[in-house]
Design goal:
The protein is of the alpha+beta class. It contains seven helices and 21 strands. The strands form six sheets. Strands 7-8-6-16-17-18-15-19 form an eight-stranded mixed sheet, with helices on both faces. A three-stranded antiparallel sheet has the order 2-9-5. Helix 2 packs across helix 6. The structure holds flavin-adenine dinucleotide. The site of flavin-adenine dinucleotide (FAD) has 33 residues, from helix 1, strand 15, strand 19 and helix 6.
Length: 324
């Protein structure tokens, strides 16, 4: 197997915080297929850590703060729902939290959360496999008999995992409208006055506290953007996010702002499958804003399909867009 990728081109994985959060969104619900995704994510990251001799999977406590009374009531209902027993922990009354955090409506613990150091994992994977750092030019991909030829490479199967750059892939133009690129940005900063235990806090935005005065806040969501570089409007939005969380009096030392484009889809499901007419061309995309939790199970599912001819789940198969 050969991996071709341009390490200098924009990459969502290179800037993602890698947070895995089983209870998400405004309504605080279990995210799509999380009961199946979580065990597979943990199993895969742990086995990769062992095989590649790296440390990338970090289970973390996660505390989400209620925004208003409605939120409080909703969480009360979830806490009584047995389906949520494995992912929801204690409810904390307003003010029962580390000082400085604004907490008018209480908070609750989300269990089984983690963050994955995706840049470190990618680096180790590139070293482990045959990796060629290059810009892939689709115009040079040619069918020769049963095979595909690209410059000096020959392969029976070519899998495109280009993230948001799929929009420029001439072989999959039919799926262009299925992919909705969404730009996201995060901000890392230091703040010695903000003493928060090593944890993830969710207060409108998530705040990752590394436990040593370093923090990372994210993320922004924008469908209307101009390029993949960090933007001033996101800086302001993220700084406002910090202020809404811990007040305005703290001095933040801005460290680094990262931006990337999420390969989100029209129906928030992955895009997996075979080209409708060009045998041997495949797509693995559409990981959206949850690649850290979704990719492990989807990779296993896709590998079984690719290598053993297992059926693809119609919910993630690109056929849903090709033959609706
Ligand atoms: C700011 C931000 C924060 C995020 N936070 C989280 C989070 O906390 N948790 C989470 O689960 N997800 C998060 N995500 C989403 C996550 O990043 C994505 O789900 C995931 O990274 C998508 O992976 P991918 O491999 O499909 O795409 P990418 O990571 O974008 O990878 C595509 C790769 O293909 C390469 N490529 C494309 N075209 C070519 C070409 N022609 N030639 C050579 N190389 C090419 C690119 O260089 C890139 O390396 C975040 C995303 C952003 C932007």
């Amino acid at each position: 197997m050969v991996l071709l990728s341009n390490s200098k081109a924009p990459s969502a994985s290179a800037v993602a915080a890698g947070v895995i959060n089983p209870v998400t969104g405004r309504w605080a619900v279990k995210s799509w297929r999380i009961d199946d995704l979580l065990p597979e994510a943990e199993r895969l990251y742990r086995s990769l850590e062992e095989e590649l001799n790296i440390d990338v999977y970090h289970p973390m406590p996660l505390r989400r703060f209620c925004k208003n009374k409605e939120d409080q009531k909703r969480i009360g209902r979830r806490l009584r729902n047995l389906r949520y027993a494995d992912v929801l922990g204690d409810f904390h009354l307003a003010g029962d939290c580390p000082e400085k955090i604004k907490d008018s409506y209480g908070s609750f613990d989300i269990l089984r959360a983690a963050y994955v150091d995706l840049p470190k994992l990618l680096e180790a994977m590139r070293a482990r496999f045959r990796f060629v750092d290059t810009q892939f030019d689709h115009a040079d991909l040619r069918r020769i008999g049963d095979c595909w030829e690209y410059k000096e490479f020959k392969a029976a199967k070519v899998v495109f995992s280009e993230g948001a750059a799929m929009h420029g892939n001439p072989w999959f133009t039919l799926l262009k409208s299925a992919l909705t690129p969404i730009k996201g940005e995060t901000l890392s900063f230091e703040c010695p006055e903000l003493k928060l235990p090593h944890s993830i806090y969710h207060h409108g935005k998530w705040l990752l506290a590394y436990g040593d005065n370093r923090f990372r806040i994210g993320a922004t969501y924008s469908q209307d953007f101009d390029g993949a570089d960090p933007s001033k409007s996101a800086t302001n939005e993220l700084l406002e996010g910090v202020r809404a969380f811990v007040g305005t009096e703290l001095l933040l030392q801005k460290e680094k702002q990262l931006a990337g484009i999420r390969p989100s889809t029209f129906d928030a499901r992955p895009l997996l499958g075979a080209h409708p007419t060009e045998a041997g061309l495949y797509l693995f995309n559409g990981l959206g804003s949850k690649g850290a939790s979704v990719a492990p199970l989807m990779s296993r599912h896709f590998t079984k399909y690719l290598l053993s001819g297992a059926q693809l789940d119609p919910e993630v198969d690109i056929k849903r867009f090709l033959n609706p």
